[in-house]
């Protein structure tokens, strides 16, 4: 099969590789579509160190099961599924209390499933969705309605799950609340529409790119703010700040902006996968009783939440077709990531 392999930093190469399996607890999937996520971009350019190479990246995939191991009970050949990097054991304390996205013992293969001439190739997050086929643990996939378009089903596995989930499951935004969303890429746009679904009365989209702010209005933003003085603008236009500020970039400056634009008892929700440290003044924590929280994978048990999101889409509440700005071939993956780096469009999706 063909796969996009990371051997040297900065670029993926399209290669013929071999795929083994499935093992007893695994399924083999023929990939229908696979989304390009910013997290993989960070890996390609070594912003996230420690990833073995060679590697097949990609964790936002959807496809059809071609084979299933002997221990697989709830999935069968022919099922249309979406993958998620939040594989879960089902037995640890986090899983037993409903927080499978925080599983302490994520299951995965005992050895490399992807090889080339005997050389093992690492599958990022035990998935490896930038390939024609993949072998994954049964608890890394969920069956989805067959009428879903493959591209829509693929982006649900990360961008939509994380963005909408951070609103509905992490912050639990109430109807009538005011919301600011900093960063209107794939995840930020889904925060915007998550806030719309939650019934927020005002949704302020913040970005430096006019085209992204325009798109944010399509997804439900009521107001837009452009420029480096975003916090001051939001404070002025709301008369004191918002109830919730979602940061979907991961920069120290935008983290501080999210904190600064809160009203009393407001909550800053940190989603962006950034690194380093950021300092915040202590005064607002005490005098305004503000909160800062993290949101990993939208605090969502994907095996339950993804089918719910599918119904939101099928009923017209969730916009996914508008999210997929470019459908590309596997051979065009580097060009897709170049578009992402340039801020062009919302989501690039490989369609096989």
Write the layout of secondary structure elements.
Blueprint: E1 2-8, E2 11-16, E3 18-19, E4 26-35, H1 38-44, E5 55-56, E6 60-68, E7 80-83, H2 93-96, E8 114-116, E9 119-123, E10 133-137, E11 141-143, H3 150-171, E12 178-182, H4 186-198, E13 202-207, H5 210-219, E14 223-226, H6 230-238, E15 242-247, H7 252-260, E16 262-270, H8 283-287, E17 291-294, H9 302-314, E18 324-328, H10 333-341, E19 347-351
Parallel strand pairs: 5-9, 12-13, 12-15, 13-14, 15-16, 16-17, 18-19
Antiparallel strand pairs: 1-2, 1-5, 3-8, 4-6, 4-10, 4-19, 6-7, 7-11, 8-9
Write a structural description.
This protein is an alpha/beta fold. It folds into 2 domains: 2-149 and 321-351, Quinone Oxidoreductase, Chain A, domain 1 (Alpha-Beta Complex), CATH 3.90.180.10; 159-297, 3-Layer(aba) Sandwich (Rossmann fold). It contains 10 helices and 19 strands. It has helices spanning 38-44, 93-96, 150-171, 186-198, 210-219, 230-238, 252-260, 283-287, 302-314, 333-341, and strands spanning 2-8, 11-16, 18-19, 26-35, 55-56, 60-68, 80-83, 114-116, 119-123, 133-137, 141-143, 178-182, 202-207, 223-226, 242-247, 262-270, 291-294, 324-328, 347-351. The strands form 3 sheets. Strands 4, 6, 7, 10, 11, 18 and 19 form a 7-stranded mixed beta sheet that branches. Strands 2-1-5-9-8-3 form a 6-stranded mixed beta sheet, with no helix packed on it. α3 packs across α4 (186-198) and α3 (150-171) packs across α9. It is globular and about 60 Å long.
